[in-house]
Write a structure and sequence with these properties.
about 250 residues; alpha/beta; eight-stranded parallel sheet; 10 helices; globular
Length: about 250
Protein backbone atom coordinates (compact mmCIF):
# COMPACT_ATOMS: atom_id res chain seq x y z
CA UNK A 1 0.00 0.00 0.00
CA UNK A 2 1.37 3.39 -1.05
CA UNK A 3 0.88 6.01 1.68
CA UNK A 4 1.95 9.62 1.20
CA UNK A 5 2.92 11.33 4.45
CA UNK A 6 2.25 15.03 3.87
CA UNK A 7 -0.25 17.00 1.78
CA UNK A 8 -2.63 19.93 2.08
CA UNK A 9 -6.29 20.45 1.23
CA UNK A 10 -8.43 23.50 1.92
CA UNK A 11 -11.43 25.60 1.00
CA UNK A 12 -10.81 29.05 -0.46
CA UNK A 13 -10.91 31.90 2.01
CA UNK A 14 -9.58 35.43 2.22
CA UNK A 15 -8.05 37.47 -0.57
CA UNK A 16 -4.39 36.47 -0.55
CA UNK A 17 -2.72 36.03 -3.92
CA UNK A 18 -0.83 33.07 -2.48
CA UNK A 19 -2.79 29.81 -2.12
CA UNK A 20 -5.64 30.62 0.25
CA UNK A 21 -8.00 32.43 -2.13
CA UNK A 22 -8.17 29.35 -4.38
CA UNK A 23 -9.41 25.90 -3.30
CA UNK A 24 -7.35 22.76 -3.71
CA UNK A 25 -9.99 20.18 -2.98
CA UNK A 26 -9.90 16.59 -1.75
CA UNK A 27 -11.32 15.49 -5.10
CA UNK A 28 -8.47 17.22 -6.91
CA UNK A 29 -5.97 15.49 -4.64
CA UNK A 30 -7.52 12.07 -5.09
CA UNK A 31 -7.42 12.41 -8.89
CA UNK A 32 -3.69 13.16 -8.64
CA UNK A 33 -3.24 10.22 -6.27
CA UNK A 34 -4.96 7.87 -8.69
CA UNK A 35 -2.73 8.98 -11.56
CA UNK A 36 0.34 8.11 -9.47
CA UNK A 37 -0.93 4.88 -7.88
CA UNK A 38 -1.10 6.34 -4.35
CA UNK A 39 -3.58 4.50 -2.12
CA UNK A 40 -3.70 6.74 0.95
CA UNK A 41 -2.50 10.27 1.63
CA UNK A 42 -2.21 12.43 4.72
CA UNK A 43 -4.29 15.61 4.44
CA UNK A 44 -3.51 18.72 6.51
CA UNK A 45 -4.59 22.33 6.71
CA UNK A 46 -2.32 25.10 5.51
CA UNK A 47 -0.44 26.84 8.27
CA UNK A 48 -2.17 30.10 7.32
CA UNK A 49 -5.65 28.54 7.23
CA UNK A 50 -6.06 26.01 10.05
CA UNK A 51 -9.43 24.23 9.78
CA UNK A 52 -9.47 20.96 11.69
CA UNK A 53 -13.21 20.52 11.17
CA UNK A 54 -12.76 20.64 7.39
CA UNK A 55 -10.01 18.03 7.58
CA UNK A 56 -12.28 15.75 9.64
CA UNK A 57 -15.11 16.26 7.13
CA UNK A 58 -12.69 15.46 4.31
CA UNK A 59 -11.71 12.17 5.95
CA UNK A 60 -15.36 11.23 6.54
CA UNK A 61 -16.22 11.95 2.91
CA UNK A 62 -13.23 9.99 1.56
CA UNK A 63 -12.83 6.88 3.73
CA UNK A 64 -9.82 4.78 2.86
CA UNK A 65 -8.20 7.52 0.76
CA UNK A 66 -7.35 10.45 3.05
CA UNK A 67 -5.98 10.30 6.60
CA UNK A 68 -6.43 13.51 8.54
CA UNK A 69 -3.82 15.36 10.55
CA UNK A 70 -4.96 18.24 12.72
CA UNK A 71 -3.01 21.41 13.38
CA UNK A 72 -2.58 23.76 16.32
CA UNK A 73 -0.72 26.92 17.24
CA UNK A 74 0.86 26.14 20.62
CA UNK A 75 0.57 29.83 21.54
CA UNK A 76 -3.23 29.60 21.60
CA UNK A 77 -4.75 29.47 25.07
CA UNK A 78 -6.83 26.43 24.09
CA UNK A 79 -3.98 24.62 22.31
CA UNK A 80 -3.94 21.52 24.54
CA UNK A 81 -7.72 21.19 24.34
CA UNK A 82 -7.50 21.52 20.56
CA UNK A 83 -5.02 18.64 20.37
CA UNK A 84 -7.28 16.48 22.53
CA UNK A 85 -10.27 17.36 20.34
CA UNK A 86 -8.34 16.42 17.19
CA UNK A 87 -7.91 12.90 18.49
CA UNK A 88 -10.99 12.29 20.63
CA UNK A 89 -13.75 14.16 18.78
CA UNK A 90 -12.49 14.49 15.22
CA UNK A 91 -10.72 11.14 14.85
CA UNK A 92 -7.59 12.65 13.30
CA UNK A 93 -4.42 10.58 13.34
CA UNK A 94 -1.68 13.17 13.56
CA UNK A 95 -0.79 16.75 14.36
CA UNK A 96 0.95 19.28 12.11
CA UNK A 97 3.04 22.03 13.69
CA UNK A 98 4.23 25.07 11.74
CA UNK A 99 6.64 27.11 13.91
CA UNK A 100 7.56 29.58 11.18
CA UNK A 101 3.99 30.44 10.26
CA UNK A 102 2.83 30.66 13.89
CA UNK A 103 5.83 32.44 15.35
CA UNK A 104 7.53 30.28 17.96
CA UNK A 105 10.88 28.59 18.36
CA UNK A 106 10.64 24.83 18.61
CA UNK A 107 13.05 24.41 21.53
CA UNK A 108 10.49 25.97 23.88
CA UNK A 109 9.55 23.40 26.49
CA UNK A 110 6.89 25.65 27.99
CA UNK A 111 5.02 25.73 24.69
CA UNK A 112 5.81 22.34 23.19
CA UNK A 113 5.91 19.89 26.11
CA UNK A 114 2.16 20.23 26.80
CA UNK A 115 1.41 19.80 23.09
CA UNK A 116 3.56 16.67 22.85
CA UNK A 117 2.02 15.28 26.03
CA UNK A 118 -1.50 15.76 24.67
CA UNK A 119 -0.52 14.28 21.31
CA UNK A 120 1.06 11.29 23.05
CA UNK A 121 -2.11 10.70 25.05
CA UNK A 122 -4.11 10.72 21.81
CA UNK A 123 -1.63 8.48 19.96
CA UNK A 124 -0.97 11.12 17.32
CA UNK A 125 1.95 11.26 14.92
CA UNK A 126 3.56 14.72 14.95
CA UNK A 127 4.67 16.38 11.72
CA UNK A 128 6.83 19.51 11.93
CA UNK A 129 7.02 21.79 8.90
CA UNK A 130 10.79 22.23 8.88
CA UNK A 131 12.22 23.84 5.82
CA UNK A 132 15.58 25.52 6.33
CA UNK A 133 14.54 27.91 9.09
CA UNK A 134 15.91 28.95 12.49
CA UNK A 135 12.50 28.57 14.14
CA UNK A 136 12.53 24.81 13.66
CA UNK A 137 16.11 23.63 13.29
CA UNK A 138 16.37 19.83 13.65
CA UNK A 139 18.38 20.13 16.87
CA UNK A 140 15.51 22.13 18.35
CA UNK A 141 13.04 19.45 17.26
CA UNK A 142 15.26 16.84 18.89
CA UNK A 143 15.33 18.84 22.14
CA UNK A 144 11.58 18.35 22.52
CA UNK A 145 11.14 14.96 20.80
CA UNK A 146 13.68 13.13 22.95
CA UNK A 147 11.42 13.70 25.96
CA UNK A 148 8.66 11.75 24.21
CA UNK A 149 10.44 8.68 22.79
CA UNK A 150 7.20 6.82 22.04
CA UNK A 151 5.79 9.62 19.88
CA UNK A 152 6.74 9.52 16.17
CA UNK A 153 7.98 12.88 14.89
CA UNK A 154 8.28 13.59 11.16
CA UNK A 155 10.70 16.33 10.08
CA UNK A 156 8.90 17.59 6.99
CA UNK A 157 11.13 18.51 4.05
CA UNK A 158 14.14 17.00 5.87
CA UNK A 159 15.39 20.46 6.86
CA UNK A 160 16.18 21.24 3.24
CA UNK A 161 18.45 22.89 2.24
CA UNK A 162 21.01 23.95 4.82
CA UNK A 163 19.61 21.98 7.76
CA UNK A 164 19.67 18.65 5.89
CA UNK A 165 22.81 17.31 7.56
CA UNK A 166 21.47 18.30 10.96
CA UNK A 167 18.18 16.51 10.26
CA UNK A 168 20.05 13.34 9.27
CA UNK A 169 22.15 13.56 12.43
CA UNK A 170 19.04 13.92 14.58
CA UNK A 171 17.23 11.02 12.90
CA UNK A 172 20.28 8.77 13.20
CA UNK A 173 20.38 9.09 16.97
CA UNK A 174 16.62 9.21 17.71
CA UNK A 175 14.58 6.21 16.56
CA UNK A 176 11.31 8.14 16.93
CA UNK A 177 12.36 10.86 14.45
CA UNK A 178 11.69 10.37 10.73
CA UNK A 179 12.67 12.31 7.61
CA UNK A 180 9.84 13.26 5.24
CA UNK A 181 10.90 13.80 1.64
CA UNK A 182 8.70 16.56 0.19
CA UNK A 183 10.66 19.52 -1.11
CA UNK A 184 13.97 17.72 -0.70
CA UNK A 185 16.28 17.40 -3.67
CA UNK A 186 17.11 14.04 -5.19
CA UNK A 187 20.63 14.31 -3.79
CA UNK A 188 19.19 14.97 -0.30
CA UNK A 189 17.14 11.79 -0.40
CA UNK A 190 20.12 9.78 -1.61
CA UNK A 191 22.24 11.13 1.25
CA UNK A 192 19.56 10.42 3.83
CA UNK A 193 19.09 6.90 2.47
CA UNK A 194 22.82 6.18 2.71
CA UNK A 195 22.99 7.66 6.19
CA UNK A 196 19.92 6.35 8.03
CA UNK A 197 18.55 3.65 5.72
CA UNK A 198 14.92 3.20 4.69
CA UNK A 199 13.36 2.71 8.12
CA UNK A 200 13.37 6.40 9.06
CA UNK A 201 12.47 7.98 5.72
CA UNK A 202 8.85 8.50 4.64
CA UNK A 203 7.65 9.73 1.27
CA UNK A 204 5.65 12.93 1.27
CA UNK A 205 4.58 15.07 -1.68
CA UNK A 206 3.26 18.31 -0.14
CA UNK A 207 0.50 18.38 -2.75
CA UNK A 208 -0.46 20.70 -4.43
CA UNK A 209 3.08 22.07 -4.24
CA UNK A 210 4.27 18.94 -6.02
CA UNK A 211 2.64 16.00 -7.79
CA UNK A 212 2.58 12.46 -6.46
CA UNK A 213 4.02 10.92 -9.61
CA UNK A 214 7.03 13.25 -9.48
CA UNK A 215 7.69 12.39 -5.84
CA UNK A 216 7.45 8.68 -6.55
CA UNK A 217 9.88 9.11 -9.45
CA UNK A 218 12.32 10.87 -7.12
CA UNK A 219 12.11 8.03 -4.60
CA UNK A 220 12.56 5.44 -7.35
CA UNK A 221 15.71 7.17 -8.56
CA UNK A 222 17.15 7.63 -5.04
CA UNK A 223 16.34 4.16 -3.66
CA UNK A 224 17.24 1.26 -5.97
CA UNK A 225 15.98 -1.47 -3.62
CA UNK A 226 12.32 -2.36 -4.16
CA UNK A 227 11.91 -3.63 -0.59
CA UNK A 228 13.39 -0.40 0.80
CA UNK A 229 11.10 1.68 -1.43
CA UNK A 230 8.13 -0.22 -0.05
CA UNK A 231 9.05 0.96 3.44
CA UNK A 232 9.59 4.57 2.36
CA UNK A 233 6.47 4.69 0.18
CA UNK A 234 4.10 3.41 2.82
CA UNK A 235 5.32 0.56 4.98
CA UNK A 236 6.71 2.76 7.73
CA UNK A 237 3.70 5.11 7.76
CA UNK A 238 1.39 2.11 7.93
CA UNK A 239 3.24 1.00 11.04
CA UNK A 240 3.22 4.45 12.64
CA UNK A 241 -0.50 4.83 11.98
CA UNK A 242 -1.35 1.33 13.11
CA UNK A 243 -2.53 0.29 9.65
CA UNK A 244 -0.09 -2.56 9.09
CA UNK A 245 -2.36 -5.04 10.84
CA UNK A 246 -5.44 -4.08 8.86
Amino acid sequence: MIIDAYNNVWQAGGTSDYLTSESYTPNDMIRAMDQAGVDLAIGCSLGQMVDNDFIAETVAANPGRIIGFGQVNPRSVDAVATVARCGTDLGLRGLKLHPTMHGYHFADHGLLDPIFEAATQQGLVILVNALDDPFCAPLAIEEIARGFPDTPVLIAHMGTVWNLNEAILVAARNPNIYLETSGAQLLDVKLAYRSVGPDQIVMGTDWPGNDFDLERAKIARAVPSESDRMLIEGGTMARLLGLDGE
